[in-house]
Design goal:
The chain is of the alpha+beta class. It has one domain (3-84). The chain contains 1 helix and 4 strands. Strand 3 (44-54) and strand 4 form a beta hairpin. The N and C termini lie far apart (33 Å). The mean pLDDT is 84.
């Protein structure tokens, strides 16, 4: 077995919510899914933990079910570009 074929993937938990009520907020949670309700309306948002692999690093974000995945992906790319210059 050749060990040079394996890459070390470093996980970075950004924990930033994309879309929904908590857009732009950080949420530290070990679950894969959560729901938050608005106190001012009947509307709530559900979030799923999503992982984005970029340049040997695995970045974790919370993506709202209210937002299209491709729109969320663009937002993630903007965040990573601003913070790390990765995209």
């Amino acid at each position: 077995m050749c060990y040079s074929q394996f890459r070390l993937i470093i996980g970075i938990k950004m924990d930033i919510c994309i879309g929904g009520i908590l857009d732009g907020k950080k949420r530290k949670d070990d679950q894969n899914h959560f729901r938050v309700d608005s106190h001012y309306s009947d509307h709530g948002s559900e979030y799923n933990k999503e992982h984005f692999h970029l340049h040997g690093q695995l970045h974790t974000f919370w993506i709202s079910e209210d937002i299209d995945f491709f729109a969320a992906q663009k937002r993630v790319e903007l965040i990573l570009s601003a913070r790390f210059g990765l995209v």
